[in-house]
Amino acid sequence: MSSAPNVTSATVDGAAWLASAGTYPRNTLALWEEHPDTPVVLPCGTVFDVVNAPAIFGRRMLDRLWDEGPGSGPVAMFRGRMLLFAAPGTAQRLPSLLTWEEWGGAHGSRTEAVPPLLCHGTGDAVTVPAPHGGDSPVLGDSRWLVAPDTRRPWLPGPEVLLWAAVRAARAAVRISIFPPADQDAKVYDVSRRR
Q1: Nearest residue to 142 via CA among 129, 125, 161
Q2: Does residue 177 belong to any structural domain of this protein?
Q3: Domain count, the chain
Q4: How many Å apart are CA 87 and CA 120, to the nearest integer?
Q5: Closest Cα to residue 120, out of 41, 27, 8, 66?
Q6: What is the pLDDT of residue 184?
Q7: Residue 148 and residue 14 in contact, taking contact as beta carbons nearer than 8 Å
Q8: Parts of the chain with a pLDDT under 50
């Protein structure tokens, strides 16, 4: 069993990778040099996509990725939600895979226990923590759980994140093969029968 690395600050290469998502990477790096605790808004879709989950469910997904799977790419916390950085194209593909798994549909028993996963891809932007982490005085809880550390980090694709979400849901929901009990049924005590 492996666990998520405790890398809460991005390396110089990791910061360069993040900045490369923006239109003006040098300006972003200069901003971080001057104001190292400043989160920035970066576009999704070319360098990375982001799967945005509520903190507890996102943590379950992250645990599955590290304990039973291939690990994760960069992961950040922002305003009580977990941002899992994913391969470009994940935001377009993951929702259809989740639908195929009857995620949140009327047929699945996972409907109430599994929160919606927000997928940010082409045309979207996300606020990312400053490379060196720390809570922002303006934004509050904004930090890296797994900070980027290379210019080309491995990023999970839609199939890997689907796998992690399904396993996280199974851990959160006890699924029964028996139909729910009829609450209006009459129950007789047969233990004292002669």
Answers
A1: 129
A2: no
A3: 1
A4: 11
A5: 41
A6: 62
A7: yes
A8: 1, 105-112, 176
